[in-house]
Design brief:
Structural class: mainly alpha
Oligomer: single chain
Number of strands: 4
Shape: elongated
Low-confidence stretches: 69-86, 88-104, 340-347
Largest sheet: 2 strands, antiparallel
Radius of gyration: 55 Å
Helix content: 40-55%
Mean pLDDT: 75
Order of helices and strands: HHHHHHHEEEEHHHHH
Strand order of the largest sheet: 1-2
Strand content: under 5%
Length: about 425
């Protein structure tokens, strides 16, 4: 075979490779394997022939001793039975050697062990639930960790490998293994597989001493500080808030049936009664003074002390006395009573509710100016804001007008408030 002497040809690992040479190597290996197989077979046949010769010799020895005494006859029978037993043991041994070995496997192949074999009368794991969305079955390890029938009661049926690992004595065995590891770390040499009885006894002694020490420590603390009454556990029905009331919930946590829907409460405190009141602030509205108050005594002063039904009757009598005209008396007395009646019947000044600023807060109101301001405010609202051309503005048009207390009062009185619940009355 010609070889290329360029850069790639000089570095080619498969240069001048002949496939026929490789095939010759394969045939050589096959011949070697065949020789080894024949040698192993001859050795096995020789061993079987030697065993057969030993068996024939034993039989001849047994036949030669038939003319002996009765004691020797008994011994011969026993030897014969031993010979038959040895033949049966040899057959059982041969059967045991063939377990786990493939029938068609050649001689010298490694034996495979079989795990997780089940009794033929039992139902297979993967046949308990044929739903494709049920528990997963691993065919390689023959394991099904989850329960194939989660809704059924756990009895003698298969409930999953995880359940079997956590049931029975599996937890105790895990505790013993953990105790063995902890004891080994502390210098004690114990083997659970070699001597399980010693490990079990040592673990029992360790648990008894631990419980005794724990109870002694708790009793010492209770004797010193007290509090035994708090250590008593309440009944189970109170501990887990269990009751006989039946309630059904949906997937989102809402109540379907069995319980009335709870009314949503505000984040603020509700139904809080202060200062001897039986009603909350805002439960009463006085139309005469346009104020909120308490419904139990009709008091319009917040955080005032409650006077009850007697205070409500006194306020009603005072309001009725102010509304009655005077029967007799001087002109000054009649004029004063009229002013009080007009003041009680008139609505409260709007600036007392909404405020007018620091300068106009205490300014007195002139009734004539107030009427004029009311008329001007009504006219302004009816006409609307006029469209003013900037080219025709006067010199002082941008100057702010003077705001008086009467103007602010007229603005507040004519302003419409949709959020006011008493605006339509």
């Amino acid at each position: 075979m010609e070889m290329a002497y360029d850069y790639a040809g000089k570095r080619d690992h498969w240069a001048q490779f002949d496939p026929s040479v490789h095939m010759e190597m394969i045939r050589a290996h096959e011949r070697e394997a065949e020789l080894r197989r024949k040698a192993a077979q001859q050795q096995k046949m020789g061993e079987l022939a030697a065993k057969e010769r030993e068996r024939q010799e034993k039989k001849r020895e047994q036949k030669s001793g038939e003319g002996a005494c009765s004691a020797s006859d008994t011994d011969t029978d026993t030897d014969a039975s031993d010979g038959r037993a040895s033949d049966e043991e040899r057959v059982d041994e041969g059967e045991q050697l063939s377990i786990g070995q493939d029938v068609k496997a050649p001689a010298g192949k490694a034996k495979s062990s079989v795990r997780n074999l089940r009794i033929r009368e039992d139902t297979a794991k993967y046949l308990l639930n044929l739903d494709v969305n049920s528990a997963y079955y691993d065919p390689k390890t023959r394991a099904m960790r989850e329960n194939p029938l989660p809704g059924s009661a756990v009895d003698d049926r298969f409930a999953g490998d995880n359940f079997q690992r956590a049931s029975g004595d599996a937890a105790k065995l895990a505790a013993l293994q953990l105790y063995e590891l902890e004891a080994f770390e502390k210098g004690q040499n114990m083997q659970l597989n070699a001597d399980p009885t010693t490990v079990e006894m040592m673990n029992r002694i360790y648990r008894e001493k631990k419980e005794k020490l724990k109870s002694t420590r708790s009793n010492t603390i209770l004797d010193k500080y007290g509090g035994q009454e708090h250590m008593e556990a309440p009944p189970k029905e109170l501990l887990f808030a269990q009751s006989e009331s039946y309630v059904e919930y949906d997937r989102s946590g809402g109540v379907l049936q069995g319980q009335e829907k709870v009314v949503a409460r505000s984040k603020y405190e509700e139904d809080v009664y202060t200062h001897n009141h039986n009603e909350i602030w805002g439960s009463f509205f006085d139309r005469a003074t346009f104020r909120w108050g308490y419904a139990d005594d009709h008091s319009t002063l917040r955080n005032s002390y409650s006077t009850g039904a007697a205070g409500r009757r006194a306020r009603e009598m005072a309001a009725a006395a102010l509304k009655q005209p005077p029967s007799n008396g001087s002109a000054a007395a009649s004029q004063q009573a009229g002013q009080l009646a007009d003041k009680s019947s008139a609505a409260l000044e709007q600036r007392a509710l909404y405020g007018t600023g620091e300068v106009l807060g205490d300014a007195p109101l002139d009734q004539d100016k107030l009427k004029a301001a009311m008329a001007a405010e009504v006219a302004r609202r009816e006409q609307g804001a006029p469209a003013v051309d900037d080219r025709k503005r006067k010199y002082n048009s941008m100057q702010a007008e003077e705001v008086t207390a009467e103007t602010m009062e007229a603005y507040y009185r004519s302003k419409a408030r949709a959020e006011d619940p008493m605006a339509g009355l």
